[in-house]
Amino acid sequence: MFTPQSLLITGGAGFIGSHLVLDLIRRYHYGGRLVIVDLETYAADPHRLDPVREDIIYINADITDTSKMGCIIAEYGIDTIINLAAESHVDRSISTPRSFIQTNIIGTFSLLEAARVSWKGRSDVRFYQMSTDEVFGELDERGLPFTESSAYAPRSPYSSSKASADHLVRSYGHTYGLPILISHCSNNYGPYQHEEKFIPKAILNLAAGKNVPLYGDGSHRRDWIYVSDHIHGIYQVLTTGRPGESYAIGSGTMIENRILLRYIIGLLAPRLSKSIEELTTLITYVNDRAGHDRGYCIDSTKIQDELGWDMMTPLQMGMSLTIDSYL
Ligand code: NAD
To answer: For tag attachment on the chain, is the N or C end more exposed, with fewer CB atoms within 10 Å?
Structure first.
């Protein structure tokens, strides 16, 4: 079992990053040094980390700054990096792609360089890259779920930038012997996700009596996983994953956006003392997203069999917790 002594988490003030930091301390009782780097873009909520401020070292910095990253690695004796820092919203990657190239590709490259130079061939270290299932593109007509060996076929500036980062990370593993790990998770949902994302936006708009936009005919299908289940996967990969390997993490089931929205409405209506019919009228079909991937789904057999991970939170429970956190 690998136990980091001094762990650097980038993007720790974001949605998944903040859940990871809080869970590492409260759920896994991580006792080593914990350094958080975040640039505090619009997507960050640094106050999420307030309850554990005394347990962490928090630095507002940009991962594209290689020398700063090198200084942090040296100063704090970092032996493990989990890189979650990213531009993460597909719609923004279509309207303003440059920042995605900058953070997701150049930023990952900068971190890799800082790690390579600082660690000088050490094997008792880990560079863990947070990838996504979107690097595999969309499911083909057979609808077979993605695995770690699915071919890369990214189709948006976001997924292309994440795919580029993965290739760089793997190349540092092969070329320099950097002990790398990669995981590809499906769509996360849960408390404290930025309200630009589909589920928080749906909940908040419905609660405020505003229209909820649904792309195209709403039949796009996604594999949703509750964020705590993803965090458990990250923990398993970090502590027991084999260096050089990648792991796919997901629920293994797909649900159409329009069905998910009706499901959310079914849970919300009694909480808002409104009728399902009334909330359903707020669904507004809008022009489809350019290049919109029709479906994603993950086969998690490898992480289940090799690392003993499993999904613990059924949709009903996860969505209820999520809805209650936004109301
Ligand atoms: P997020 O947008 O909520 O958080 C990203 C964080 O990165 C923010 O706090 C932001 O301030 C920070 N950041 C951005 N640019 C930075 C820079 N140059 N330097 C330092 N920090 C910077 O994203 P998220 O949903 O928490 O996703 C985290 C990671 O997980 C991303 O790499 C994303 O690609 C991946 N991922 C997300 C999902 C999902 O459903 N949310 C699924 C699979 C993979």
So the answer is: N
